[in-house]
Amino acid sequence: MGNYLNLNEYQLSALSEIGNIGAGNAAAALADFMADTIMMSVPELQIIDVNSMANILGGPENEMVGILVTMNCDVRGMLLFLLEKEFVCLLLNVLLSKDINEFADISEMDLSVIMEIGNVLAGSYVSAIATMTDLDIRLSTPQVAIDMVGAILNYPAAYFGVMDDNLLFIEENFLSEENTIRSHLLIMPEPDSLSLIFESLGMSL
Amino acid sequence: MGISDQKVAGPPDTLTTYALGSCVCICLYDRLRRIGGLAHILLPEAFGDVSGKNVYKFADTAIEELVRGMIKQGCAHLHLTAKIAGGANMFVSEGKSIGDRNIETVTQELQRLKIRIVAQDIGANYGRTAVFNTQDGSLTVKTLGRGNKVI
Fold first, then answer.
1. Strands (DSSP E) along chain A, which ranges?
2. What is the ipTM of this complex?
3. H helices then E strands: how many in chain B?
4. Tell me: the pLDDT tens digits for B65-122?
5. Is any Cβ of chain A less than 8 angstroms from the Cβ of B106?
6. Could you tell me which residues are beta bridge partners of residue A71?
7. Which of A70, A119, A184, B23 is the most buried (most CB within 10 A)?
8. pLDDT tens digits for range A125-139
9. β-sheet bridge partners, residue B9
10. Facing residues of B85 across strands?
11. Interface probe with A: pick from B91, B122, B129, most Cβ of A within 10 Å
């Protein structure tokens, strides 16, 4: 093991299912926050190399918010949420009754709110994995970077680059009453942890 | 140019690599021949057997490869100078960060190859786009919200 491209159809659909449940949890959590109905499209699972990844996210220089959370305990690895500017501004505007349109207007206080949102989102996905597999997963406190998406992606690329040139990620659309906003989530378990997840689901590698 | 890639070119070409985070770009220049080479590395070391690995990905294999490519284009090893950019820490990590380790290995490797670093823009916690002009060997470093500079 050590290459996401070796995964079979069943394993991929198991990962999609984790994405589905996680996304459902995340949408419910966000709806609590936002007091608004947030619907989600069916998440799409993709395995892609890091250069192409930056391109589908609007090009390497596209400014995005990256929220990084690391997983520890039974499952090790990381989750990286990559959020479009519109999504982050919308969240902050609704939650804090502000009128932010540019990243430059984001304050320290706003950043900590973004981190908290990251916490909630990460918890949503991780509890999906934990419930399905009965494994113990602990999350670190989130870190935020607002910068070129290509530069943000260097972090997981370097972390996993020793093993693989490809990244596993889930893309989904959050739909609120007025807006459709794409959100992207990279779920990156270490290869050993991925094996363990499949083992717990009764589909060994 | 993407991650784990490298290229050699001459005027009027510019070599551009976007959004360096912890990655480092190494720009070598032969002022007499006016030939420039850019390597974009992801990791410091290839560790052991490099067969089947992309040698452009690692500092300890990519720089030597770039020098070889430039000599093939008529450059003299003696005339080569280096400018480097990148090696940021986009997130705080436990232990020594990958950006710092990349910078360290790139610096050691250039020292080993006896190539002087004449300018650098490294470290900190933000992304950089590097545009290397083979006409005069200047390196323009662009950032989001932190201005651009020519080194």
1. 39-40, 44-49, 63-73, 77-83, 137-139, 143-148, 166-175, 180-189
2. 0.90
3. 2, 9
4. 999 999 999 999 999 999 999 999 999 877 789 999 999 999 999 999 999 999 999 9
5. no
6. A77, A139
7. B23
8. 888 888 888 889 999
9. B36
10. B25, B121
11. B91
